[in-house]
């Protein structure tokens, strides 16, 4: 009986110690990633040929407006803006900020925030339309050469 109890206590102790180490390494990794400098622009040579597409979606029913038509127009605008954001992410990259809080090896808070900033020019509308009864989809595209030029000429983001 004593042997069995010892084995169980040792297994339990190892699991708690392993969890504590895992939590400590996770926190350390989060702190390191938060201190890493943000990448100014992605690899411009990766955007060598073809076109880059951005797709955006928006629900109609949650849009502000008094009539169904007003809500549809707002959904079209929202889906177009979401597609522009996706193009900006592909051209300029995304700045990720992370914060994690640990107390007595228990995760208290874990926050992740992404920020995109950039100027998107010469994007062509490939299509805008409903894909379901309540969702609009917008597809935009930009020439890869134009995207590479935008990424290379990017001004530092204001902080």
Distance between the termini: 64 Å
The run of helices and strands is HEHEEEEH
Q: How many domains would you count in the coordinates? A: 2
Mean pLDDT: 77
Oligomeric state as shown? single chain
Helix amount, in percent? 40-55%
Largest sheet: 3 strands, antiparallel
Alpha-beta classification? alpha+beta
What is the radius of gyration computed over CA atoms, rounded to a whole number of angstroms?
24 Å
How many β strands by DSSP?
A: 5
Stretches with pLDDT under 50, minimum 5 residues: 1-47
In percent, how much strand structure appears in the residues?
25-35%
Separate helix tally: 3
Quick one: overall form? flat
List the strand order in the largest sheet. 1-5-4
How would you portray this structure in words?
With 159 residues, this protein is α+β, with helices and mostly antiparallel strands. It is built from three helices and five strands; from the N terminus they run αβαββββα. The longest helix has 34 residues. It has two domains: 36 residues; 114 residues, no CATH class.
Secondary-structure map:
Layout: H1 2-35, E1 51-59, H2 68-92, E2 95-103, E3 106-115, E4 124-132, E5 135-143, H3 144-152
Antiparallel strand pairs: 1-5, 2-3, 4-5
List keywords for this structure.
single chain; 159 residues; alpha+beta; 2 domains; 3-stranded antiparallel β-sheet; two-stranded antiparallel sheet; 3 helices; 43% helix; 29% strand; flat; disordered N terminus
What's the short version?
With about 160 residues, the chain is an alpha+beta fold. It is built from three helices and five strands.
